[in-house]
User: Fold this.
Amino acid sequence: MPNLIIHPQLSRRSIGLLVLAVLAANTFLRLEVNAIQSQKIYESKNDRKIRTAAIIDKLSLMFPNISMSQSELRQLRNEILLAITSSVASSLGMEAGGFMGSLLIRTPSAPDQTLTVIARSDSSREIGIVYPKEGMLAWEAIERGQVQITGDVTEEFDGFDSKPYKSVISFPIMVAGNTIAAVNVDHAFRYLFLDRGLLFQTNLRPYLRLIALSLVNVAETQPEPKPGVEA
Amino acid sequence: MNAMEQSGQKERWFDRFNRGEISFDELSQKVYAIDHPKPGWQRQALKFLVGAFLPLLFVGTAASHNDSQ
Assistant:
C-alpha cells in the first residue's frame, strides 16, 4: 500500500483551502459539462421538431385537397389543440387541465374587423364567438406575424376582467409568408409565458403546422345522411 | 431586437427554408441562435471569475499560508 506523504509543514488550513479549490474547480467543470450536454440534447430536440414541421409542410403540398366532414375536422383541430396545451403544460411542469387552446381566424364576413374562435382544446368554453380586433392579442399575432404574450390580460387589455384566464400566448399560423390564423393558449395563473415565447414557438411548431394544414388543405364535406333517415 | 421581433424573424427563416432558399442545417443553426442568445460579457466574466479564478485564489492562499509557517 503506497504511503501518503503529507508535507509536515502543511497546515490544516492549507489543506482545507486546497480541498476547497479542488471542489470549486470540480463544480465548475461539472456545470460546464452539464451545460454542453443539455445544449446537445436541446439541439437534437430542436432539430427533431423542425424536421417534423418540415415534413408536415411537405405533406401539405402533396395532399392539397383532403375531404373531411365538419365534425371530423372539428375533432381533428380539437386533438391538435389538446396536443399543444399538453406540450405547454409539460414544458412548464404543470397539469394540462388548466390550459385552454383556441384557434382564431379572421371572420369571413368582416376579415379586417373581427376574429372568430373556430376550435377549442376542450368544450368548457364555446366556439363561434366573434371578437372585435381591438385589444386582441391574436389580432396582433396575425397582423405582425409574431408571437405575442401577456402576463396579465386583465391589467394590460380592456374588457377581460370577467375572463377566467390571466396569461395568454398567441402564435401566428403562417402559410407562404401570410398569417392566416392564430392559436391562443391561456391559463389562470399570471406571467406563465414570459421569456418562453421563442422556445414554445420552436417546440410547438409541428402542431402549429398541423393546424395550418387543417385550415388550408382540408375541405369540409356535407355530412352524409344516415341510412334510413330521409332528407 | 426584442423576443416578439425575433419570433417574426424565425418565421421568416422557416419560410425561406420551405421555399428551398436555405438548407436544414442553416435553418437549425438560425433557430438555435434565436432561441439561445449568447450571454453578455458580464455573465461570461462572472463565469470565468467563479470557475477559474476562485480555485486559483484558494491554491494561492494555501501556498502562501504554507510558506508563512
